[in-house]
Design brief:
The complex is a heterodimer of chains A (304) and B (241). With 304 residues, chain A is of the alpha+beta class. Chain A is built from six helices and eleven strands. Chain B has four helices and twelve strands, in the order αβαααβββββββββββ. Chain B has helices at residues 2-25, 51-54, 73-77, 81-86, and strands at residues 41-45, 105-112, 115-120, 126-130, 146-154, 157-165, 170-173, 177-179, 184-194, 198-208, 217-219, 222-226. Chain B has a nine-stranded mixed β-barrel with strand order 1-2-3-4-5-6-9-10-12. A two-stranded antiparallel ribbon of chain B has the order 7-8. The model of chain B is unreliable at 6-24 (pLDDT under 50). The chains are: A alpha+beta (304), B alpha+beta (241).
Chain lengths: 304, 241
């Protein structure tokens, strides 16, 4: 008897349900399929780490510049500093792809989180989609930070906080643990474009904005573990390798290699706008074409 | 059962009517009224990527990160900016394949209800994104080609998709890395908020050329919104700078 009542009620409501279904069928969707493997396309130069002093494309404070110029890459051999160069921002600065999985609530089947898998030194990023509260500002800060996400205008929008103090660029440009990163993940066909807007109240004059594209890969990307520290010759208590002020031997390497203006290599804000191109028009002399040891595609240096 | 059948019939008729309206049974709303995002206003390039390839002219022969084909190499090595200038070809690096990567300001307006206009002060170029099919004979190839635009709406926003072809041969980089007149440029324009009520325009660009590229060349230049046109500074094309 009961089942007949249920069937009768379903029949009565079916037209309404059909109307709603068909009326919404042609409307814009809010989400895209983010789960899968996306290989880096690599046709944009966003890494800027092939020479030790390269702050091109950044707008940094004087304090950040002084700290960056004191940075010696040998610091990476210290256990407590080995992972500092591969914070959350390395998602778009590094050479790796996105291996994205989702975790769902077993009862509601709704997505609780997306996880972008680790890649060698970069630790996995979990994007929480369940509106959980952001931790206290005093909560643990980690290499990957804490990331909350939501869907907005067809994009996955996320914000990362609670990062450890480290580097915004692995050439030693520093980042505080008060930094935050706003992300937008767009998908157009097989291409996912990740937009990063990083702000730091201490070391960045203007946000670092990087966008990088990835293509859906038919073959799943490899699993890699995240940053694991290990002994590399430095004992606890050893002196931190560094350069004293005005003693960085690499300060002008990039400037000389490509005849670049020093203020651009050192990350002065005005160098990011079209006016600057006009300003250097009469002073810039391009280097001669490379004729030997050019590296790939006529480039002067291979990546270190 | 009759009520169910009547309901289904009503739904079919209703949706058929909606589809007819969407497919031209009734006058379509102009693109300007259907805009998924507002792109109008002044925007300025914020050059945080590819700085060395955009803000200065890279050395001759450097095509790193561009998937140049073997057919492109002789042209790359023969690049002569002075010869381009003499031949009146100084706008080669300002064509649709590269113009959004040129450090510039954009002025975006609606030319009419179905045509979005993008002007650049660098090289004084004009791009027309047409939402309605173009009538008449095909236009001659040009630096900016023919651009077909469609909105890709999503709940609370969306994107603008633009496909450009019918291009003149141009340069992907100031130092003469070529794209051919067979090139197709597919762009998606997305807008994101920035602090202080500002906005960021992201242009994901896929350049496909069966002649001078071995695969798609993908870049994503971005622009900050400006409050007015006070910094608008038109300058002509130059192949030497």
């Amino acid at each position: 008897m009961f089942i007949h009542v249920v069937i009768a009620r379903l029949k009565a409501r079916a037209p309404l349900a059909l109307v709603l279904l068909l009326l919404t069928a042609g409307r814009a969707s809010a989400q895209f399929d983010f789960v899968g493997s996306f290989a880096p396309i690599g046709t944009e130069d966003v890494q800027n780490d092939s020479v030790p002093v390269d702050y091109l494309g950044l707008a940094i404070t004087d304090e950040a510049r002084a700290r960056a110029l004191s940075y010696d890459e040998s610091q990476k051999s210290m256990i407590e500093r080995q992972c500092a160069g591969w914070g959350a921002a390395y998602l778009v600065l590094g050479p790796f792809g996105l291996r994205v999985s989702s975790q769902t609530d077993p009862v509601t089947n709704r997505v609780v989180s997306y996880t972008i898998g680790a890649w060698e030194d970069w630790n996995e990023m979990v994007i929480w989609m369940d509106d959980r509260p952001r931790p206290s500002e005093h909560a643990l800060h980690t290499q990957a930070g804490f990331t909350l996400g939501r869907w907005e205008g067809g994009a996955l929008v996320a914000r990362t906080t609670h990062v450890k103090a480290g580097f915004i660029r692995k050439t030693g440009v520093p980042m505080t643990d008060n930094a935050s990163i706003d992300w937008r993940f767009y998908r157009h066909g097989d291409v996912v474009t990740v937009l990063m807007v990083a702000t730091d109240p201490v070391y960045l004059v203007e946000p670092e904005i990087i966008s990088k594209s990835f293509r859906l890969s038919a073959r799943p990307l490899d699993y890699r573990s995240g940053c694991v520290t290990g002994y590399e010759g430095h004992e606890p208590g050893d002196t931190v390798p560094h350069f004293a002020p005005d003693k960085n031997p690499f300060a002008d390497e990039f400037v000389k290699l490509y005849h670049l203006p020093r203020e651009a290599v050192l990350g002065y804000p005005e160098t990011l706008y079209p006016e600057y191109r006009k300003k250097i028009k009469d002073s810039y002399v391009p280097p001669l074409p490379c004729t030997e040891s050019c590296g790939a595609a006529g480039n002067f240096v291979l990546r270190r | 059962m009759r009520a169910f059948a009547a309901g289904v019939a009503a739904v079919v008729l209703l949706t058929a009517g909606i589809r007819a309206q969407q497919q031209g049974g009734a006058p379509a709303r102009p693109a300007r009224d259907r805009a998924a995002i507002d792109l109008t206003g002044y925007w300025v390039s914020y050059v945080t990527e590819n700085w060395r390839y955009r803000m200065v002219t890279p050395p001759k022969g450097e095509y790193r990160r561009i998937p140049a084909s073997r057919a492109a190499l002789p042209l790359i090595n023969a690049w002569d900016p002075a010869a381009d200038e003499r031949a009146g070809e100084q706008c080669r690096s300002y064509g649709a394949g590269n113009i959004m990567s040129v450090p510039t300001r954009l002025h975006i307006t609606w030319q009419d209800a179905d045509t979005l206009k993008i002007e650049t002060d660098a090289g004084t170029q004009t791009r027309l994104f047409r939402f309605a099919a173009r009538n008449g004979a095909p236009a001659a190839r040009s630096w900016q080609g023919d651009s077909a635009a469609t909105w890709e709406p999503a709940a609370g926003g969306g994107s603008l998709r633009v496909v450009t072809s019918n291009l003149r041969t141009g340069y992907l980089r100031k130092n003469g890395v070529p794209y051919s007149d067979q090139t197709t440029v597919t762009e998606h324009f997305d807008v994101a908020p920035l602090a202080g009520d500002s906005k960021l325009l992201l242009v994901t660009t896929v350049v496909e050329d069966p002649v001078y590229l071995t695969g798609p060349y993908v870049v994503s230049p971005h622009f900050k919104k400006e409050t007015d046109g006070s910094k608008w500074d038109p300058t002509p094309c130059s192949s030497t700078w």
